[in-house]
Each structure stands twice: as C-alpha cells, then as structure tokens.
Amino acid sequence: MTTSNRSLAPFATSRTWLAVLAAGAALTLAACDKPGNQTAGEKLDSAVAKTEQAASDAKAKTEQAAADAKTGMAGATADVKEAAKDATAAVTATVDDAAITASVSAGLAKDPDLSAIKIDVDTKGGAVSLKGPAPTAAAKSRAEEIAKAVQGVKSVNNQLEVKG
C-alpha cells in the first residue's frame, strides 16, 4: 500500500488545491451577487440610467424656467404697454393744458383792458386758473368769458383781483 499511497500523493495535494480553488471561486461568485459588487457592464448600465434621469430632470427644469420667463415677459410687456399708454395720456394732457394756457393768454392779450395787465394763466386737466389784477369788475368778467371760450376748457377759477 505504500506504493499506491505514494502514487496517489500528488493527486491528494492536487485535490486539496482543487478544493481550495473551488471554495475561492464560490466565494468570489457569492460576492458578485452583493449589490455593491457590480460587474463593469452593470456599473455602466447604472451610470447610463442615472445620466438619462439627470438629463430628463434638467430638461424639465429648463422647460419650467422657459415657461416662467415667458409668463414674466408677457406680464412685463403688458406693464410696459400700460405705462406707455399712461405716459402718452399724460403727455397729451400736458400738451393740451399748454395749448389751452397759450390760447387763453392770447385771448386776454387781445382785450384792450387786459392786455397791459399781468394775468397768470395756469391750466391743469382742462381747469383754468386766472390770477392777478383786473382793472374793473367788467374786465374780470370778460377774462373769465375769454377763458371759457377756449376749446378744451372744462372750468375756470377766476381769482383776479379788481384794482381801482
């Protein structure tokens, strides 16, 4: 038996090594099944999925930002249009008031009793105010009638003081 044991001795050592290798392979395969131990292909697939999700999230955020910007621009455009309309109305009213003031002053300058007298004419929103001296009560009354006759005048506040 000694001979046969000797002839099997190299195989016994090989069997031991084979058993150790098989156990190591089994442990390695078992470790591959754990979630933290992914293959290169699985890691790549996971990275691609995360990248696709990030791109999808970025797209959604960009679309929302664009929609918000569009809404903001629409509101701003409406505000600008309203401001322009208000500014135009204010300029028109100012021009109208200036034209009324000029017309009233020109009418007063044509009256022989009022032309030499300094009468301040102020117009705001079509309301004319007359301030200063008037030589007579009749001249004061004529100044008011001259102002009322000008187109665009809504009211006249006659504060002229009769001197004399």
From TrEMBL:
Protein name as catalogued: BON domain-containing protein
Domain of life assignment: Bacteria
Lineage of source species: Bacteria, Pseudomonadati, Pseudomonadota, Betaproteobacteria, Burkholderiales
Pfam families linked: BON
Species: Variovorax boronicumulans
UniProt cross-references to Gene3D superfamilies, sorted A to Z: 3.30.1340.30
Cytoplasm in keyword set: no
Domain BON span(s) in chain numbering: 96-164
InterPro entries: BON_dom, Lipoprotein_DolP, Transpt-assoc_nodulatn_dom_bac
